[in-house]
Amino acid sequence: MPKDEKKENGSDKEALVLFNKGTSTLPAAVQRAIDRSGLKLKTREKAGVAPSWKPDKAGEYVFGEVLAVRENVGEFEGTVVVLSTPDGPVSVWLGADLKVKMGSSVRIGQVYCIQYMGKLKKSENPKLKNDMNHFQVSEILPEG
Q: What is the residue range of 111's domain?
């Protein structure tokens, strides 16, 4: 934000930013209109098509706030959760393990950390029909 931009009262201007995108701002004309209105507003990035998170190694994780939950996506009518991360929106497909752990309780605004723990092998666990990706899911909640 350029230092020469000031509010009418002379204090430093605080730009509205897209959620979790600290370097992105609204178009200048929109920001000025909001400033003139005197309303205290925040913006939230709307999810579009986002790249899919595809972890390769145990320990990889994705962390962010849920922007969207999409049901019946693709050929197999899967569920996709779009997370707002520091690097931009990321789609997380809810496969077997994630679907059980996150289920239908996922809501916009919730914050999750999803960590890939590796593959569970059918050869090591005969109850499995196929090899399965294993994840640790933590919902991040405010204290109180």
A: 61-140
Per-residue pLDDT of the chain (144 residues; tens, 9 = 90+): 343 433 344 434 343 333 444 434 677 888 788 788 887 776 665 555 678 999 999 999 999 999 989 888 888 888 899 999 988 889 999 987 898 898 778 999 999 999 999 998 888 888 888 888 899 999 998 887
Same-domain pairing of 29 and 77: no
Specify the 3-state DSSP secondary structure of 31: helix
Rounded Cα distance, 116 and 62, in Å:
9
Q: Are 16 and 42 in contact (CB under 8 A)?
A: yes
3-state SS class at 138: strand
Q: 125 and 84, same structural domain?
A: yes
Rounded Cα gap, residues 30 and 40, in angstroms? 14
Question: Does the global pTM surpass 0.70?
Answer: no
59: three-class secondary structure by DSSP: coil
- Give φ, ψ of 15 to 5 degrees: -75, 145
Look at strands 88-93 and 111-120 and give their pairing.
unpaired
My answer on whether 38 and 75 are in the same domain is: no
